[in-house]
Amino acid sequence: MDTRQLRYYVALIEAGTYTKAAEQLHISQPSLSATIKKLEESVGLTLINRGSRSLQLTHEGKILYEEARRFLQHFQHVTDEMERLKQQGPLEISIGLIESTIFFVPEILKQFKQEYEEAKVSLMETLSLSDVEKALYNFDIHLAITNQNIFQNDIETLPIYEEKLVTLIPSGHRLANKRTIQLHDLENESFIVCKEGFQTRQDILNAFNRAGVQPNIQFEIERFETSCSLVEKGLGITVVPENYVTYSKHTNLVVKSLAEDNISRTVYLAYVNNRYMPPIVKRFIEMIETYFK
């Protein structure tokens, strides 16, 4: 089994037919068929069900396809990275972020740029669990600062801090004058919360569940910016990280602490383990860890 065979195999599966795959690979169809046959011989498994008119994979064929696709992505990444190192050195870093990290990331970046003046930094919002995993696996980012609790064996997650969640209430609302808010106060209020797939949603709903309260969810959003705007317009109440509100430009709303002191979320550093990590990325991780010690 070699890289060429795997590349042809993945191309065949994604093209759907031998004819299309051969055209895309700029080889003859018999040559492609022979390569796939040699691949099956080398692994000792039947990968394609030839009793079907359409291209259908065996169970083993599906597994090999997923693993081969991931391997080829990694192989291409390594090839590109080595070429880039020859041309300009390891002076690029891509970071996935959540909104509330605005309270510390600019400070870390200032320190980072003092050490690496020529470094190019790419910042990418990765909010949902699927966003984070996709960006890491596809090499879009080197690391993520996320509140998503990731359960993947090949992704390392390091908790770096806990952040308190607070309530946002429209100005003039009946609850705006209360010193602190209890979750029971929100039971019948129009509630704004993150969409499915966001860990913050789960953290908030778990807190409501512990309090025996069923929230009246009227709006589901992806960004805290949207929820703040909805609160300003009197469309509901929401719960967001205090770190985000501190740096928010929204003014026509009231921030209230929650009486329940166990409502918070954990923020992690996440990266794919067993993958080459440039020294510049390792140094950035060290800076974050030092900041929160």
Report on the structure:
The chain is of the alpha/beta class and 293 residues long. Helix content is 43%, strand content 24%. The protein contains ten helices and twelve strands. Strands 3, 4, 5, 6, 7, 8, 9, 10, 11 and 12 form a ten-stranded mixed β-sheet that branches. A two-stranded antiparallel ribbon has the order 1-2. Helix 1 crosses helix 2 (18-25). The two termini are 48 Å apart.
Instruction: Give average pLDDT, whole number.
Output: 91
- Tally of DSSP β-strands: 12
Q: First CA to last CA: what distance?
A: 48 Å
What is the ordering of alpha helices and beta strands? Answer: HHHEEHEHEHEEEEHEHEHEEH
**Overall outline:** elongated
Number of helices: 10
Tell me the Rg in angstroms: 25 Å
Structural class: alpha/beta
Classify the helix fraction into a percent range.
40-55%
Strand count, sense and barrel status of the largest sheet are: 10 strands, mixed
Residue runs with pLDDT of under 50 for 5 or more positions: none
What proportion of the residues form beta strands (DSSP E)? 15-25%
Protein name: LysR family transcriptional regulator
Domain HTH lysR-type: 1-58
Keywords: DNA-binding, Transcription, Transcription regulation
